[in-house]
Amino acid sequence: MTEQTRTLGTVSPLTVSSMGLGCMGMSEFYGAPDEASGIETIHRALDLGITFIDTADMYGPFTNEKLVGRAISGRRDEVQLATKFGNVRGENGERLGINGSPEYVRSACDASLARLGVDHIDLYYQHRVDPKVPIEDTVGAMAELVQAGKVRHLGLSEASPQTIRRAHAVHPITALQTEYSLFTRDLEDEILPTIRELGIGLVPYSPLGRGILTGRITAESLSKDGDSRSSRYFPRFQGEALEENLRLVDQIKAIAEQKGVTPGQIALAWVLAQGDDVVPIPGTKRVKYLEENAAARDIRLSDEDREALEEAVPRGAVVGSRYGDMSSIDQG
């Protein structure tokens, strides 16, 4: 059995399970929500030693934190709980922009604590950087939450190297959450070297490329109601781009078959092999997929395996941007 924990951050370290669980899809975006299955999946995750649980106030909106709160009730001391603020939504799901103002930071945290039913959040992320508010002001307010005991550690999501440096100068940043997988590797150029220089851990979301790396996605499977991947917001899942990208997945399938594992497992093993400061958070709302993902912790990739995977999916080979609108991703 592989080592089951990893430590995010060196200045403000947080020890978490070596793989986390992203809970977003239990409430929204990837087909119909399924609360009962979601709670069952979280319980099974904890039993398997996957105790780093990731949610956000915007998921649902607001319902995913409540689901997570119910699921971890009675087992709070086992959990490293992460949530996020900053992507503002209304009760009907409307998107109201990004808010990083100190007043909003404080009110969002109190609301998340209430929905989660907990007295503190282990890792509190700014979900998206607000270009209208200096990062120093936002992180300053987040630091006050640490001093108040409401939050233990701070994180950023989708922040540029410059923003990360400015934030870390105000209060130690424990982790950066951003997209990273065999299909998304642009952070290797500047972001990864920056966070390693500063001693900040990496939490990759969508380490399975929003599910495409599992080998289970087809144009037909995306056509079900409520799957946001079929929208123009995700160019990699559209028409000819999807066809080209599925051809890349076929090559991963072949490598996985040779090792006797699934494509998703070998894709997660590749992310886990990028360093002990990397903790992916694949999301699922089904116990069987959770168990499949969890088994990736025990897969050992040789240098040859890693080279074969990186040759199968060369950087730049994936067709389409990761989002149709990249304006909310901090570029500066």
From TrEMBL:
<dbReference type="InterPro" id="IPR023210">
    <property type="entry name" value="NADP_OxRdtase_dom"/>
</dbReference>
<dbReference type="GO" id="GO:0016491">
    <property type="term" value="F:oxidoreductase activity"/>
</dbReference>
<dbReference type="InterPro" id="IPR036812">
    <property type="entry name" value="NAD(P)_OxRdtase_dom_sf"/>
</dbReference>
<protein>
    <submittedName>
        <fullName>Aldo/keto reductase</fullName>
    </submittedName>
</protein>
<dbReference type="InterPro" id="IPR020471">
    <property type="entry name" value="AKR"/>
</dbReference>
<feature type="domain" description="NADP-dependent oxidoreductase">
    <location>
        <begin position="19"/>
        <end position="312"/>
    </location>
</feature>
<dbReference type="Pfam" id="PF00248">
    <property type="entry name" value="Aldo_ket_red"/>
</dbReference>
<dbReference type="InterPro" id="IPR050791">
    <property type="entry name" value="Aldo-Keto_reductase"/>
</dbReference>
<dbReference type="GO" id="GO:0005737">
    <property type="term" value="C:cytoplasm"/>
</dbReference>
<keyword id="KW-0560">Oxidoreductase</keyword>
